[in-house]
């Protein structure tokens, strides 16, 4: 099974332990040959003895019928679809339960670890004498840590990562391979995936008679606790104020965050989204993939922006927008449906 090739099982879990961990109610299979133990996770179509699966939609009933896993999370209303040979773990949210179980089974998969599988400062790493590393920091070969940088215990710095002068990184963080962090303050339990760039210049210029004059970018990037930043994402430092990423927010791969942007707590920003400078994004906002947020806008708390949307005006709290330019989601969907009907009518008339 592919997951076992790269991530080690923490230990086998009895099905009863999985149920206790996730709050599931057990529906026993018919006369198991041995005490049921979970040693892996798998999709329904590939599940076999020892595996744990989850089922959340009747559209996958055929795959469930053919599954050979030991146990499966599913909702009580779907229990009648479960083959008698599989132990049912009845929960309200199978995907959430599966996430908790998989995290216990394969904790190494939750964050980037040392690619050198070492501890301490590896040979070939370059740590400035004026840097301060707490006990328990791991630094992989090729990493560079500048003067005055401070890194907390339990943090892993991946190979060829660059930590600039005076940067602060908290405890139990994971900084992936070839990440660069300058002009930044990073909280605890932050995950930054390979290739991300934090703290570089924002895109700031003043127009003059002879072209563009570069504006000094004097702010910082502040990343609060429990943030996750995807691979090859870029977050510009502020110009005169700080760029801030709020507690618990999750940013996907290939996202661009401009200078002076303030992102609230527990936001979700999906791949290839661009947020222009000086935007303010409230708590619990969701930005769909390839959405574009114009500069100096405010996105209210709990708002959701559909994929490929272009936001050009402030968004009130709780709004649901879609399209380019973005408008209320229902109106956008009705408009798309109307255009589709007109196109089909035109094609019929042409015939």
Automatic annotation (TrEMBL):
Gene3D superfamilies given in the database record: Hexapeptide repeat proteins, MurE/MurF, N-terminal domain
Enzyme Commission number, as recorded: 2.3.1.191
Active-site residues, record numbering mapped to chain: 259
GO cellular component: membrane
Domain UDP-3-O-[3-hydroxymyristoyl] glucosamine N-acyltransferase non-repeat region residues, every copy: 37-102
KW Transmembrane helix (keyword) present: no
Subunit-level organization: Homotrimer.
UniProt record similarity statement: Belongs to the transferase hexapeptide repeat family. LpxD subfamily.
Name this polypeptide is given: UDP-3-O-acylglucosamine N-acyltransferase
Organism: Methylocystis echinoides
